[in-house]
Amino acid sequence: MGIPNRQFKSAIYEQFARIGKAVASPQRLEILDLLGQAECGVEALAAKTGLTVANASQHLQVLRGARLVEAEKTGVSVRYRLADMAVADFLRGLRILAEKRLAEVEHITRSFLAGRGPFEPVDRDELIRRVLAGEATVLDVRPSEEYRAGHIAQAVSIPLKEIEQHLAELPRDRLVVAYCRGPYCVLAVEAVELLRTKGFQAVRLEDSVHDWAAQGHPVTVSETPRTLGTGLGVSHEAD
Questions:
Q1: What is the side-by-side order of every strand in the sheet holding 136-140?
Q2: Alpha helices of the chain — where are they, by DSSP H?
Q3: CATH of the structural domain 106-220, one choice from 3.40.250.10, 3.40.50.300, 3.90.1200.10, 3.30.40.10
């Protein structure tokens, strides 16, 4: 005889609650977001999140316990990654729900951007049309390892910290679109600020690579970062 109905439902929802408990931490949500960009070691995750290595490791163990994160040891190093792309889908759904139901999300974002110069609203549909039509130079300003793990098709890789070294290669006669890890990542914000001070027409695309793919737009995986040709906004190397 099977288990009683009530016992069955309680047991099932208890398993679902394991996921809820594991993500009930802003630090762990950020770690999942970062691992959604590319696999990473604990030291790098600690640096990106402002945590100590010990704290980052503890959070990773909680996420592993809920089967949200996997680890692979190579020599003395351990690399962490999302256990399944369904985790990235879940995180994106959680973000969208929070945006719809929590007015504080928009308030915090507006307060942040208010002190960052002229970040006027952009016609998102028109911006996406121009990106897809190749009418803009698209910059992926994330670290190169994240770009290699997946990026918007035709985007070029110039990590934020390297932009000033490549200003002479960027076209001044066309729109420059910078993107990073999504709407709450500040890398693209800083990139656009820098480019505008240097006289470029630059805007931020809020979409992450996962957002881009979820809308059916092309995403590319590349072993070698695509770089700008001098003054042309084209690639030296094919993906």
A1: 156-157, 136-140, 175-179, 202-204
A2: 5-22, 26-35, 42-49, 53-65, 85-101, 103-114, 124-132, 144-149, 187-197, 209-214
A3: 3.40.250.10
In the chain, where does the domain assigned CATH 1.10.10.10 lie? 5-87
CATH code for the domain defined by 5-87: 1.10.10.10
Give the pLDDT score at 75: 87
Q: Known catalytic residues?
A: 180
**What's the confidence (pLDDT) of residue 218?**
93
User: How confident is the model over 180-189, as pLDDT tens digits?
Assistant: 999 999 999 9
Cβ neighbours of residue 104 closer than 8 Å, sequence gap 6 or more: none
37-70: burial string, b at 16+ Cβ within 10 Å, e else = bbbbbbebbbebbebeeeebbebbebbeebebbe
Sign of the torsion angle spanned by Cα atoms 6, 8, 14, 20: negative
- Token duo for residue 234: 């084209």
Residue-wise pLDDT for 40-57, tens only, equals 999 999 999 999 999 999
Q: In Å, what is the CA distance from 168 to each residue of 137, 190, 228?
A: 14, 18, 10
The DSSP letter of residue 199 is T
Predicted confidence (pLDDT) at residue 13 exceeds the cutoff of 60: yes
pTM of the model as a whole: 0.88
Question: Largest alpha-carbon pair distance within the chain?
Answer: 74
